[in-house]
């Protein structure tokens, strides 16, 4: 006697999200809250300084370095794209451009701070504006610095010919971080140089 | 049915190695990236600090036992309550819960390790050194000023107490840096747990088939990502104020002391849920196994947990009713605080529903969970009372508040944790905890707990403020304080019996076997203790109770889910 049997359905492929991307997104969530707190503090203390200088007196909008930082998001995206297609020369060029644009941004911040400290006499302890400005912009700049160190390591490895399309996934995860740093700058820029001035 | 015949085998083959020397053992534990070893290290580390924090609590209670006592000086009293709070939250509760999460999550989802084993080890050592830094302040906190050896600003460290003018020396800096360092470790662990749960599940284990413990730890880790970094941000601001002359919390320069409170409690309140959610997880695993029924309302449990996770992010200012907020703020935080009680109530009903009609086995893990259920309910009810702003104006900052949150932390969190110890100790060590000693531990602790914390509500209602060094006789507080202090010694003896029980049973205990409780989740399929690779063959699951399916092939769960 044969019993009617249903054939077990063909097992579907068991796919799970990439752990690198999940971890980076989680990390970005954590980073977002830390930036949120600093942004809230900046907005809360806006105009509450008891002495000068005020933002309107001393801040100049850093258009050039902002353009540099935001374009680096495009170049890093292209770099990962080229690596996926194993176009190594184009990858190295785009990756170098990303690094250079990030470095220009950081130098721009350095020049700006130098002017604020030496010309305008604004330090972190001058008034509330100084405290909140240097800590918010400084928090972002420290994230750019961290990103640049990672980008630099990859650049050195790439120039030594040790990066190939197998590493595409790792660089993709790193590029998520870099995009985040750029996106945060949009917020910081808006808060400090548009609303805060 | 003997579990050795289950097709998911633990051991791939018997390995015989020569007995390692102690230096080899030490080296192995120092450099390990194995989630089980790290989990055990988290737990042992937390137990050491539990004893330390308990000694501090005992010192506080001896000082308060009678009016006008001078057991310790006022400075030491302030240091002790600061260290007690900081230690218990950051270096006992969090590490012990991370320890269990580390140990159990990969086993329950049928994985061989966490998603990032080295990050896991890094996070543990950060947390470990954070705790050492806090206690190093006993030696190094004097700095060059000879002022203040240990943090004495309270565990929430309100401004302006923490400013350079009021906290000379380095004691507050040790507090700040230790929380910063362990906070980074916490973020690492949270990222790791999220990635493990989402990316490492064994075939067949969809999100809807994960054990509740895994779900709840996922929610806890998600909450940590939102809540730990505000504390990090606040600590960075405090360091900028103290070291670089910043003005964040400096009211002389237009800064605000209230904003520290907001930043601290944006972390501080969700933190309570971060601690209680893993305990909900333990209860959700233990109650079904000892009621011989699957969990009642699995999807509702998950939804309620996620709901708690979201709502608890918006209740923080109920710690601040007494500072004078606007009526709109008060109304908002009253409503959110009362709302968060709803999903929590749903969970209690689900556990009761699980037990209803079940064949309950009164083993030790279940007894602790029953204690948890009733005590957590009472703690929730006093929470609802304090959540209403007018009530809180009367009793805020009194011993009623202290009694309320100790009811949550001891009566809820610690009871569930003890349950978890009795439940998973056989898996972790391969030996059963001694039952007779366990009963002594349970009943002594239960008695001591109620003696201390039931009666602690009364001096609060009579107007005794928290954190006072001593008090006048004749206010009607003395007798209650004496009872509270006597209860502490019952608890202390019970905890010492528990520690003795663990050491004794580890060496002399009855051998547990793979599955002593006849349970249903994957960690019981492998050997006790599990081999380094957890599973010789990665299991495949079809339902929420994979071991039930294997033990009862004639009536598997997947036919009904």
Summarize the structure.
The complex is a heterodimer of chains A (197) and B (561). With 197 residues, chain A is mainly α.
Structure, explained:
The complex is a heterodimer of chains A (197) and B (561). Chain A has one domain (21-195): Up-down Bundle (Four Helix Bundle (Hemerythrin (Met), subunit A)). Chain A contains six helices and no strands. With 197 residues, chain A is mainly α. Helix content of chain A is 73%, strand content 0%. Chain A has helices spanning 19-44, 55-58, 63-84, 88-118, 128-159, 168-195. In chain A, helix 1 (19-44) runs parallel beside helix 6. Chain B is an all-alpha fold. Chain B has one domain (31-559): Cytochrome c oxidase-like, subunit I domain (Cytochrome C Oxidase, Chain A, Up-down Bundle). Chain B has 15 helices and no strands. Chain B has helices spanning 22-31, 35-64, 74-108, 117-140, 171-199, 212-244, 257-291, 298-311, 327-355, 364-387, 389-395, 399-429, 435-461, 478-508, 546-551. In chain B, helix 12 (399-429) packs antiparallel against helix 13. Chain B is globular and about 70 Å long. Chain B starts with 21 loop residues before the first helix and ends in a 10-residue tail after the last helix. Classes of the chains: A mainly alpha (197), B mainly alpha (561). At the A-B interface, helix 1 and helix 5 of A face helix 5, helix 6 and helix 7 of B.
